[in-house]
Amino acid sequence: MKNKVLPTNVERTMAENELICSRTDMKGIITYCNEVFVRMGGYDRDELMGVQHNIVRHPDMPRAVFKLLWDTLHSGQEITAYVKNMSKDGGFYWVLANVTLDRDDNGVVTGCYSVRRKPHPSAVQDVAALYRIMLDAERNAGARDAIEVSTKILLDVVTKQGFKTYDEFVFSIINKYR
Ligand SMILES: Cc1cc2nc3c(=O)[nH]c(=O)nc-3n(C[C@H](O)[C@H](O)[C@H](O)COP(=O)(O)O)c2cc1C
């Protein structure tokens, strides 16, 4: 299901002691979500279950971040990332998300699980500035080259700051504002 909602500048915030949780299959179809997810998204639970997780995708998010998310999960790793999401009414909410793989007793991957908490406002400012540059580059590059160009910007920032991986970079931001 594609999201036809128009974004507004109204921010929704979650409490420090809340977690937004959801589970998906390996295609990103929502199979579980908690009450905080339902409230922050502004959708009825019925509208969320069984639909692609991009229902809360915000147009300000660079495509390269989701490419990295899926590549990382498909390689068997977990990922931690800052994400701007969009509610049903067009409002937005930033999260710091950790996405892991669900495995059965035999270690076979059965899906993905995401736990999100409220990010520090200063971390959001840093990340939003980087995402803005990536998004502009994606728009200028056109659909075919967008992800490649924007991934390069992201990885250049990671490398220039002395980190080997995106996760190291994210944790440096988390620790900076602790
Ligand atoms: C467990 C899990 C949680 C996800 N959570 C989000 C999320 O909160 N917001 C989001 O935009 N995409 C999330 N995604 C990624 C979406 O499935 C999708 O790749 C992304 O929204 C980009 O959609 P698009 O390719 O249609 O633009 C999640 C994926 C998984 C596996």
Question: Which helices and strands appear, and what pairs or packs with what?
Answer:
Layout: E1 20-24, E2 30-33, H1 35-41, H2 45-48, H3 63-74, E3 79-86, E4 92-103, E5 109-117, H4 121-141, H5 146-160, H6 166-176
Antiparallel strand pairs: 1-2, 1-5, 3-4, 4-5
Helix pairs in contact: 3-5, 4-5
The protein binds flavin mononucleotide.
Residues 22, 24, 28, 53-54, 56-57, 61, 66, 69, 83, 85, 99, 112-114 line the site of flavin mononucleotide (FMN).
Question: How would you describe this structure in keywords?
Answer:
178 residues, alpha+beta, Beta-Lactamase, 5-stranded antiparallel sheet, 6 helices, binds flavin mononucleotide
The CATH class is identified as Alpha Beta
Percent strand equals 15-25%
**Strand ordering within the main sheet:** 2-1-5-4-3
CATH topological fold name: Beta-Lactamase
Q: In angstroms, what is the radius of gyration?
A: 16 Å
Mean pLDDT: 96
User: Helices and strands, in N-to-C order?
Assistant: EEHHHEEEHHH
Whole-Å distance between the termini?
A: 37 Å
* Low-pLDDT residue spans: none
CATH architecture: 2-Layer Sandwich
What this model shows, in words?
Helix 3 (63-74) packs across helix 5 (146-160). This protein has helices spanning 35-41, 45-48, 63-74, 121-141, 146-160, 166-176; strands spanning 20-24, 30-33, 79-86, 92-103, 109-117. The longest helix is centred in the C-terminal third of the chain and has 21 residues, at 121-141. Strand 3 and strand 4 (92-103) form a beta hairpin. It has a five-stranded antiparallel sheet. Helix content is 39%, strand content 21%. The protein has a single domain, classed as Beta-Lactamase. The chain has 178 residues and is an alpha+beta fold. The site of flavin mononucleotide has 16 residues, from strand 1, helix 3, strand 3 and strand 5.
